[in-house]
């Protein structure tokens, strides 16, 4: 079956061997290479579909923008441009021609489309919900934190920062349990933000995960560290960062440690450092955090078992038993008999 993505089509289902929709006459073989199989989800800005690339028979994801606001279009195109520059297994892969405009039949307004790698798995928000919000353990937390920092390092090294790290924007691959950072529509060039402050930075706010400087349109790369720290508070406690059991709205403090008794003070300290109110008090780059994690891992390793010294071999002592007089007489008699026998044989010869 081929679905028509014309939002005005009354019957989008079509056979999989046609080129144009039987209902609205819009193209269903997109870019002469993609057929839309099914809808995966819908958000405020767009719809995602599973598609099949007919030349390779490979499943991919098609993101379709349904909001024609100029800013939404700018962010959508930006996601395509950024993803084409990032090459890491923890980032969805796109081809250079992944972005295209689709014109439904008799329409002068294009629909903006982006084709990307299909990541099979769950995002971490759904993952936690399916676990009934049961917190993850320290070993998993450290491994995941390292993985995400390595992914984030790839982004920052290209002079981008993400600006919307949160559980729902992190996927867990089903095939190999690898983490994948998704939704790059909010990324920003470091130079645009830090070295050119005219006009500020577009506000991207996810309650509980967005730091104060980003709320005030002054996001920086260290804003990603704050959001990453808050993400791990959620994973380690099973509670949203603004949960009333942890967050004090009067003092704007997050008292989360008592809700994560399974982790060490060292790891808790690191996460609090990442979530400092002032971005200048946070780590300067991903390598600083990775170095701290290496120190934590070393400190958490159990001491090697003490080797017991091998016992020294003891010399074997032989004890000779005393020979009795009777044994002496018997031995003498046997000797005389043997000698007599030998002499007798000699003379007989």
Element order: H for helix, E for strand: EEEEEEHEEEHHEEEEHHHEEHHH
- Number of E-state strands: 15
**CATH fold descriptor of the largest domain:** Transferase(Phosphotransferase), domain 1
- Compute the separation of the termini in Å: 118 Å
Any idea what the CATH architecture of the largest domain is? Answer: Orthogonal Bundle
Give the amount of beta strand, in percent.
15-25%
Structural overview:
- Keywords: ATP-binding, Kinase, Nucleotide-binding, Serine/threonine-protein kinase, Transferase.
- Its EC number is 2.7.11.1.
- Residues 34-300 form the Protein kinase domain.
- The structure is a single chain.
- The chain has 349 residues and is of the alpha+beta class.
- The chain has two domains: 2-117, 2-Layer Sandwich (Phosphorylase Kinase, domain 1), CATH 3.30.200; 121-195 and 202-300, Transferase(Phosphotransferase), domain 1.
- It contains nine helices and 15 strands.
- Strands 3-4-5-6-8-7 form a six-stranded antiparallel sheet, with helices on one face. A three-stranded antiparallel sheet has the order 9-11-12.
- The radius of gyration is 37 Å and the shape is elongated.
- The N and C termini lie far apart (118 Å).
Secondary-structure topology with pairs:
Layout: E1 2-3, E2 13-14, E3 29-30, E4 34-42, E5 46-53, E6 58-65, H1 70-83, E7 99-102, E8 111-117, E9 121-123, H2 124-130, H3 138-157, E10 160-161, E11 170-173, E12 179-181, E13 188-189, H4 190-194, H5 212-215, H6 222-237, E14 247-248, E15 253-254, H7 265-274, H8 286-300, H9 325-348
Antiparallel strand pairs: 1-2, 3-4, 4-5, 5-6, 6-8, 7-8, 9-11, 10-13, 11-12, 14-15
Helix pairs in contact: 3-6, 3-8, 7-8
């Amino acid at each position: 079956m081929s679905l028509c993505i014309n939002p005005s089509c009354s019957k989008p289902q079509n056979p999989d061997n046609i080129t144009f929709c039987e209902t609205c006459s819009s193209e269903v073989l997109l870019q002469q290479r993609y057929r839309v199989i099914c809808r995966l989800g819908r958000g405020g800005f767009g719809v995602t579909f599973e598609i099949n690339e007919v030349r390779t028979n490979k499943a991919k994801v098609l993101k379709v923008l349904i909001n024609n606001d100029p800013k939404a279009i700018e962010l959508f195109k930006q996601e395509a441009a950024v993803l084409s520059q990032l090459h890491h297994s923890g980032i969805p892969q796109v081809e250079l021609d992944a972005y295209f405009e689709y014109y439904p039949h008799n329409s002068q307004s294009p629909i903006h489309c982006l084709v990307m790698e299909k990541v099979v798995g769950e995002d971490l928000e759904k993952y936690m919900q399916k676990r009934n919000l049961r917190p993850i353990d320290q070993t998993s937390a450290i491994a995941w934190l390292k993985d995400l920092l390595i992914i984030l390092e790839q982004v920052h090294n290209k002079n981008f920062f993400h600006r919307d790290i949160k559980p729902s924007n992190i996927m867990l691959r089903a095939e190999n349990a690898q983490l994948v950072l998704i939704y790059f529509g909010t990324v920003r060039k470091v130079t645009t933000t830090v070295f050119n402050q005219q006009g500020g930075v577009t506000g991207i706010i996810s309650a509980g995960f967005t730091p104060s400087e980003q709320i005030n349109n002054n996001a920086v790369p260290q804003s990603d560290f704050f959001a990453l720290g808050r993400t791990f508070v959620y994973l380690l406690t099973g509670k949203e960062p603004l949960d009333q059991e942890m967050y004090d709205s009067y003092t704007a403090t997050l008292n989360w440690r008592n809700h994560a008794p399974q982790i060490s003070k060292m790891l808790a300290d690191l996460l609090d450092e990442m979530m400092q109110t002032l971005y200048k008090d946070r780590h300067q780059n991903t390598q600083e955090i990775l170095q701290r994690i290496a120190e934590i891992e070393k400190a958490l390793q159990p001491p090697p078992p003490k080797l017991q010294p091998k016992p020294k071999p003891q010399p074997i002592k032989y004890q000779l038993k005393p020979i009795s007089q009777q044994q002496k007489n018997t031995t003498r008699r046997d000797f005389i008999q043997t000698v007599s026998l030998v002499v007798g044989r000699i003379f007989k010869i």
